[in-house]
Amino acid sequence: MQKLEHEALVAKLKDPMELAAYARECDDYRPGLLARILGALLVGAGNLVYGKKPSYEKFKAVEVIARIPYQSWEAVAYTYLTAFYGDEGRAIRLSRLLPFARHAQDNETMHVVVITHLVKHYHRNSFFRHTLVPLVFSFFYYWAIWLLSLIDRRVAFELNYIFESHAFHQYTEFLEREGERMKSAPISSPFLTFYGREADNEYDLFQSIRLDEIIHRNGSVEMIKELDHGRLS
After folding, report:
1. pTM
2. Which of 33, 123, 127, 159 registers the highest number of CB atoms within 10 A of its CB?
């Protein structure tokens, strides 16, 4: 999904009925056992370090980690392309993943940069818990996803489905709890402007980020379908 198409979908999903219909498309997807085990460990570790309740600080850590699968998938695709560049059919199949991975990691980068700005604004940043720990975890997570994508890409997509589902529900809970306050909290972010997204206040920002996560979740299922139909190597 390209950026303009993604932003148009974000705007559309601000309608609760449209969002409900879009979510139902993949709500019933059930990941395999390995993905569920890994997903439980991933979410559980985050809850252990940052607590179960959503917060600015927790979202900063979550978004640092959320970029990783898309970076790994792109790296794996290029690794395969280097090895199989002589097979045009396979090169085409491998290249189908790249637009989704590129856009998603840019989108997640916007999340972490802007949320980090808010964390600093509210003086809630802890170098160890909210900077060092996510960076160290991301290093190992990158290589784990890279290896997993080489062995069984379906599991890698399913793990991302679980993580993005968790992020969507965390943002939903945060908006329900803090929404009224956030509507009166203006936001000014040069990076958000650079990215090309408008938000009048924190509520608008977090609502749009929440919608990004459900789009990434459903996009992971679309990648699984591409894999099943032989359109993705």
Report:
1. 0.94
2. 159
